[in-house]
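Crash report, auto-generated. Payload:
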Amino acid sequence: MAEVKYLEATRIYPGTDKPAVDRLSLTVEDGEFLVLVGPSGSGKSTALRMLAGLEACDEGSIWIGDRDVTLVQPKDRDVAMVFQSYALYPHMTVAQNIGFPLKQQKVPRAEREKQVLEAARILDLVEYLDRKPKQLSGGQRQRVAMGRAIVRQPQVFLMDEPLSNLDAKLRVQTRAELADLQARLGVTTVYVTHDQVEAMTMGHRVAILDYGVMQQVATPGELYRHPANLFVAGFIGSPAMNLIATTVEGGSVVFGTEHVELDPAVARAVADGGAADIKLGVRPQGLSLGTTGVPAKVVVVEELGSETFVFVELEHLGRTTRIRVRADADYHVSRGDQTHVRVLGPVHVFGADGSRLRNASEVEG
Amino acid sequence: MTAHTEPMGSPDPAAERAAAIAEFQRRDKWRRRLPLLPALLFTIVVTQVPFIFNIWYSLQDWKIVPPRGPDFTGVANFTEGYSNPFFLDSVVISIGMTTAAVLLALLVGTMLALLLDRQFFGRGIARTLLITPFLIMPVVAGLLWKNQMFSSTFGVLNAVLETFGIDAIPFVERYPMWSIVTVLVWQWAPFMMLIILAGLQGQPSDILEAARVDRASGRGIFTQITLPMLRPYMELGIVLGAIYLLQVFDHIEVMTGGGPGSTNVPYFVYQRSIGGGWDFGQAAAYSIIVVIASIIIATFALRVLSSLFQRQEPV
Amino acid sequence: MTLSAADRKLRGESRWGTFALGVITWLVAALFFFPVFWMVLNSFKTELDANTRPKLFFEPTLDRWQAVTESIQGVLTFDTAFFNSFLIVIISTLLVLVLAIPAAYALSIYPIKAWRDALFFFISTKFLPVVAAILPLWILAKELGLLNTHLVLIILYTAMNLPLAVWMLRSFFGEVPRELIEAAQMDGTGLYGQIKDVMLPIVAPGVAATALLCFIFAWNEFFLAVQLNPVEGSTVPVWVSTNVTTRGNFMAKLSAASTLAVLPVVIAGWIAQKRMIRGLSMGAIK
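Recovered output after restart:
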């Protein structure tokens, strides 16, 4: 168990000029479950592989514990990795797969079998020990890959989208099991995914990357409530936050036919920076439909059973704009109906450079 | 592993770090190269050393029968050899023989592959029979065809012709090159067949289904989907076949002994050296000419191969 | 995937059409195989029968087989030739694998920057006719005392087959998913462990196909054997050619010798057919 540190770590693929990972600086606490999340091409897998030693670190450094491992071979870093495709050795049985790293460490046979059995017990694989990977289901293979990583008792677990190849239902179930396992073992874990729901539900903290640059690292709650910029705001939360360009009048921001009052610190920031190019962000959960508010027309209704999301069209700054609004499950509308949208809050304001303008409470606190 | 303090600020740790990274990359490069070295060195020594010797010999006037030299004569061997009509004949034969054999083998092989590309009773046995000619020793194949198929006295082909009232044809005597080409095609069509068969079996059935849904005819499917898909396999067959067929020797040796009309370049060069001519200087010069020509052909052929390599990009 | 009944219907073939094509294929196969069949047939004839007009029916005898396998002093014999061939071919094939497997690894897994150049170099050595090199090879072999030895042919056959082996093995190695190698690295293996424990078991069929092809080409090689080992250490192809004489009738004896000569390779090829097809297709294309 150890702390992991990226210090201005950079990776530029030969032949390209834009870095795949751009001066990443990140500290993962001992025992923490940190999720690296972002769209494809964001560099999250690359960053993980740099920690594994499978990808070179062109500038900066990477530390595990108090060791600078930037130039250390993967096998000497004391980390274990679970691959997206599981990478199970097809010609070996489950027991041999799990025991393989121990064999490389020259662990004597009896001891090896004991540890393999232990790992199999934790992962509920005992009855499959003699099978070959091709005789296993996707979920079972995933567990074998986990077993192979666990049995090494490494300082850090690395996981590269280990749930992506499972079907949706299994994914949700395995998510919880994985989080539980990590909590029990207490090993520092760095986990990569493109699915923000996975990130939010599993991570102690989540680091969001876009084009190799880290956008924000914080707890899920913090990311949800106080996204650092437009990218994070649009990425976290499902369904996504509504982001519309708007203008400021007085101390309020325009929303359709309404004016929403701004927090004084935000208003001041807008005034300082000029009122051009600002965006308003409000989540579907921060809006409601009813008889008062901005007039809007229903376009699409998404009934989920527990709640309903309604796509509506309204006039905003002379243009027809579409936003998504959350409604209770028993609120019934159909396409073409007229309704009104009201802002419940909270609203976020983003400046011209995309970063979110801070509230008074954040500035002081 | 020694513990470091975080490298920040002062230039010295940074320079140390850069040096460490450079050293690491250097070692990594050698780690990648090392496994290749034994094979590479072995090949270089065994194939290039004789070549270097040949260059030396080619500049000598050196005969064994009658004994003369070695005396340095510069490029005399080359100028003499380059315009030798027999040499030029052998070049023509080489080109003709190889082209005919490769293309005919590909044609026959493709037809065989198309026939084999279906489930039918005894398919495995049919395939087994068909690949046998490729496994036969070239010497045996040449002798077999010369004495038992082509022979005018007790050859099977002439016996068949006789039953149709046609006079016996001394195939090997009258058509030396084409007799040899026949044997080459017989032996190499199965090779082409295997390659094309691999291509046919790689056809994804969903494309065929889509074509059917789009109401394509059988012939249409073949010419517009199958044939284009087979192209890389055909190219591979041509290149591999040409590599081996350019160097045909055994068949010529046992079937015609290098008579006129059947001597290709390798056989010609052989004749010049230890095959009877014993003119080492000349033979070496011819070898050099052949090598240079091979390099030119190889560069051309490898451009074809490199398009095949595009499909396999390692990281 | 070979065409199944469903695919045939897709192609618009009727069941009778398929049957007819099947019969045609059988006929073509039989025709193709006929020369080999005839040769084997002839080996069971007496010289009298064999050296006249071809006939299908005769009284079979094992006489010529006996003649071809007997040991005569001072003449290259069957058992010597076979022993030499097996020794030379097996050792050279093993040597090829030992050299080619690491080379294929270096060209596929973590390839050097110039991997294409290296591969081209290997293949280019096959474009050089061996005939062009025979003179210096012969002189070198003579100087080094390697004429008429097993060693000289082992070395040359290895060099002859190495490019093919490197090319094919490289393709096979390329098929192994990258992540498998990376997992092996993280599990603590070095180069040797990765090859032995992970790669070779997975590409074993490809290695077998490559070895078989090397075996075939080395076994059938005639030119180098007859030039460099004319007296001792001669191989089977040379032995076959010694059965061609200008005196007297020899057809049946030659047929027997020929059949014996091609038997090992043909049997190996027949047994490993599927592997070889898979090997040729995977190794050569993809």
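Post-recovery validation: Chain C has a mean pLDDT of 82.
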